[in-house]
Amino acid sequence: MRIAFFTDENQTPGSEKACPGNQNSLLKVDYFSIKEAYLPTLEHAVYDMIVICPKGKINLCQIKYSAFFNGQACILDICDILYLESYYRKTSVVVAGSGRMRIRARLDEEEDKLPKDRFVRINRHNIINMQYVRNVKGEAIEMQNGEILYVNGGRRKKFDTSYRDFLKDNCMTL
């Protein structure tokens, strides 16, 4: 798959970068700068996907989430994860549409794998994807699958600022 990636950052036109650990992979990414006006070059090139990110914040390596489930490596799209829940040193990854996947991992280790601008830890047992928050009332957070999770009092301020920043960055503020 060939991807053209346009950002505000200064990049060498057409420079290729790969995600770490993906040597000899089928994913090839060309980075371009929007400032240099290389958009017209797309007329003469063949790409499977074109990503335009004016803020330059997206890292293609962080779009996927990998975990071991039943002894096999499982790769998920970050945008499909509703939240992670942990009890007794086992973590459940709740995925939109396909239910739960129980993995053997600690929640703090999994927290490091997730992008900080999209996921926030709300209590000792849960990390949520702010994209799937339906409603917030006091300490109760209603997720899009209908489940209600609760924010710990000590994490409330961090959740409020993270969620407000998420809404602002994703043009969801009223």
Topology overview:
Layout: E1 2-7, E2 15-17, E3 28-33, E4 49-53, E5 64-69, E6 72-77, E7 81-87, E8 90-95, E9 99-103, H1 107-113, E10 119-121, E11 126-129, E12 133-137, E13 140-143, E14 148-150, H2 156-169
Parallel strand pairs: 1-3, 1-4
Antiparallel strand pairs: 2-3, 5-6, 7-8, 7-11, 8-9, 10-11, 12-13, 13-14
Distance between the termini: 38 Å
Succession of helices and strands: EEEEEEEEEHEEEEEH
Shape: globular
**Helical fraction:** 10-25%
Radius of gyration: 19 Å
The number of helical elements comes to 2
Secondary structure category: mainly beta
Count the strands?
14
Average residue-wise pLDDT: 75
Specify the oligomeric state. single chain
Largest sheet: 5 strands, antiparallel
Descriptive notes:
With 174 residues, the chain is mainly beta. The protein has helices at residues 107-113, 156-169; strands spanning 2-7, 15-17, 28-33, 49-53, 64-69, 72-77, 81-87, 90-95, 99-103, 119-121, 126-129, 133-137, 140-143, 148-150. A five-stranded antiparallel β-sheet has the order 9-8-7-11-10, covered by helices on one side. A hairpin with a 2-residue loop joins strand 5 (64-69) and strand 6 (72-77). It starts with a strand and ends in a 5-residue tail after the last helix. Residues 11-24 have low confidence and may be disordered.
